[in-house]
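step=predict obj=DUF255 domain-containing protein n=362
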Amino acid sequence: MNKVLYVFVAFFMLQVGAFAQTNFEELTLVKALEKAKAENKLVFIDTYTSWCMPCKYMANTIFPKSEMGEYLNPRFVCVKFNTEEGEGAEIMKRYEISAFPTFLILNTKGEVQHRIVGGSETAEDFIKRVAEGLDEDKAIGILAAKYEKGDRDVKLLVKYARALLAVDDPLTVQVANELISKLNDSQRVDSAYWFIYEHPVLTQVGSPNMEYLLANAERFQKSIGAERVNEKIATAFDLQLTNMITGRDRQSGMEAIDKVEKEMEKYEFPSKSRLKLFVEIARVQKSGDVEKLLQVCEKNIPQIEHEHLLAMFFPLSLTIKRNGNEDQQQRILKLAKTLLAETTNDKFKFSLGQFIPYALEK
């Protein structure tokens, strides 16, 4: 009797263990859709690649958690596909997947009800993101269907724009512009629509939205708060200057740099002193004078917090390495080694440690 009981308990524990984690089934998409329809569920798809580290983190750390299984298994037929091969490659093309990991929630017709791009650090956060796909006010596929049928109600446009922003969909710009066009002047500065002006893609320096924000900064400060508005303006200037220095923006010349500098003077924000250093670097870099660029780097770079050098220092030092003489090359190498010895920023330390031997010492 005890032996029978032991076998039963062991079997029961195995079953509990099997269902404690996310139950990814080995099914084709067609079979998954059929099973979901029969069980009155949706289909949850994990699309991944062999080289994607966030994909591995989700597979090894998040999906095995019991809370994930408890949430996903009763609601979804769960499947996963490697997009580098077989049906996975077809699914990537069919659903226009371009970033990994991407998770899809499909209805039983195979239509996208929701899309989640990127992993989560915790099961709690990922469950929250999946739950949005079951909410008609947040599920991107449901909102898209209404939009495609011609619904242009302001409330819908707000919900759809926010959903698109969450997955970095290029359509966000179009929807956000339609939303802005429906707002009167007093509505545009309302906090309900601040997310448009706050986003770096929707409100870039030089864009109509940015021009409106700058022209109405005091009104935005009253409704949003001076600190948030000034920080947004500072971030926009930061991004523009960084793009000029790193070469992402190859079109802007001295006039654009002068305009940024002049515009910055109208506002007060904590990073203003650093951005003035950026202005000086950008201006000298545009001149093409390697010696002047090196001198400005030697003077300004030590004053800049290392987390703000991650994008900037490497292209600057490569310019000097490629175009400078032997003495100038040694001086930029010396500056890099000094930064490596002093930095406490782990990302900068790792990147610089790899960069120096492969780029500056050769």
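step=describe
The first strand starts at residue 42 and ends at 48.
step=end
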